[in-house]
Amino acid sequence: MIAEHVLAHGGRVVGFARGESTIDHPDHTHVQVDVADPASVQRGFAELKQVTDAVHIVVNNAAVLTSQYSMIMPPAAAAAMVDTNLLGAFMVSREAAKLMRRSGWGRIVNISSMAVGLEPIGDSLYAASKAGLTTMGNVMAKELAPLGVTVNTLGVSAIATDMLAQLPQDKVDAVVAGLPLPRYAEPDDVLNVLDFFCSERSSYVTAQTVYLGGVH
Q1: Which helix (H) or strand (E) holds 126?
Q2: Coiled coil located at which positions (predicted)?
C-alpha cells in the first residue's frame, strides 16, 4: 500500500522484505532483508547503495505478532516481536540516517499500533514493542534534528492486513466497536497522516505520535 502510493506519485522505492517482491514497477527495487537481523540490515543498505546514494524517506512498517497470554508465550515468539518490531526499526533508521545526513533532509516514520493505547489481553510483548517505537523515535528525533531529519510515529488502528487476519474476527470487531470512531481504517486514513509527516511543510513537526480512530 505505502510503496504503491509513493510510486504513484513519482517517487522511487527501495523495499526491504524477507520474501519476494509483489511489485512490478520500473522505479521499485526489492532487497531481501530480515530486519530482525542487524547484519542483514547492514547488507541490505550496502546493496541499496549500489542503486542510489540518497535516502529521503523511511517508513518502518515491518512487524510480527503473536497474540498469546504472557504465561504461555513462547520465548522465541516474544524475542521475534522485539527484534523485528523495535530493533529492526532502530537498525533501519540508524543506517538511513547516515545517508540522510549527506543531503541534510530526511523523514523517518515508525508505524505503531492501537495496541499501545488499548493494551489488549494477549498482546503484552507486541504492545510493548510498538510503544517502544514512540520512545525510540522521540530520542532519535532529538539526535537527528541538527541534520534536518524528523522522526515521527503513526499508530494505526485495525486495517485489513495479513497480520490482522491472524486474530479472531469477532474480537477485532469488538475492539473496533469501542473506538471513538468505530470503523476499520482505510488505506487513505494511513496515507493521509503519512503524507503529512513526510511533506516539505512538516519540517517543524518531529517527535510526534498520531493515533488513528481516536485511540490515545
Answers
A1: helix 124-144
A2: none
- Check: pTM over 0.85? Answer yes or no: yes
CA angle 160, 82, 155 (to 5 degrees): 40
37-60: per-residue pLDDT in tens? Answer: 999 999 999 999 999 989 999 999
Q: Which residue has 542487524 as its cell numbers?
A: 38
Coil, strand, or helix at residue 26? Answer: coil
C-alpha cell at 196: 503529512
From 69, 126, 184, 204, active-site residue? 126
- Residue 126 annotated in active site: yes
Contact 62, 130 (CB under 8 A): no
Strand partners, 59: 109
Evaluate whether 125 touches 67 at the Cβ level (below 8 Å).
no
The model's pLDDT over 80-125, given as tens digits with 9 standing for 90+, comes to 999 999 999 999 999 999 999 999 999 999 999 999 998 999 999 9
Place of cell 547484519: 39
Distance between CA atoms of 64 and 25, rounded to whole angstroms? 26
